[in-house]
Specification:
The chain has about 140 residues and is of the alpha+beta class. It has helices at about 15-25, 25-35, 115-140; strands at about 5-15, 50-55, 55-65, 70-75, 85-95, 100-105. A six-stranded antiparallel beta sheet has the order 1-6-5-4-3-2, covered by helices on one side. Strand 3 (about 55-65) and strand 4 form a beta hairpin. The mean pLDDT is about 90.
Length: about 140
């Protein structure tokens, strides 16, 4: 049995669920913590969203529960393996003390021949993205 290559982290954010959800689903914020194709536009992420970098990769929303869970399926055409279970999952919860928590899960890259490389890259992405999401959500006002 191969090892699991899933990046997992939880981060506490001092902001309401709805504010964190905004940062996860509005392109004007997403562009500050992740990359979007130049021609993506400013349409909010919704259950039918597909984000495509032609010839490179595609992210398709496969689960969309407002203020709770957003899951993307990742497709990379250059992967030799047939992959159907690699994705990005963002989960929002509130604890008993009223703290908002963002859970991030990326992977599982174990199915890929170069899974370790993708896992390592995703660890770095998650650390940077989670911190930026936290900063953006906790700001009272964002000026563009």
């Amino acid at each position: 049995m191969s090892k699991s290559l899933i990046v997992k982290n939880n981060i506490r954010i001092n902001a309401p669920l709805s504010r964190v959800w905004e940062v996860l689903t509005k392109p004007r914020y997403i562009r500050l913590w992740d990359q979007l194709p130049e021609d993506f536009g400013d349409y909010d992420i919704d259950p039918a969203t597909v984000i495509e970098w032609p010839g490179y990769s595609r992210l398709s929303v496969i689960e969309f529960i407002p203020n709770q869970r957003l899951r993307y399926e990742l497709y990379v055409p250059t992967w030799e393996e047939r992959v159907t279970n690699i994705g990005y999952t963002y989960t929002l919860t509130v604890d008993d003390d009223g703290n908002t928590w963002l859970g991030v899960e990326i992977g599982d890259f174990a199915i890929l021949a170069e899974g370790d490389k993708y896992y390592d890259t995703s660890v770095d992405f998650e650390k940077t993205a989670s911190q930026k999401i936290k900063e953006l959500a906790e700001k009272r006002e964002i000026v563009f």
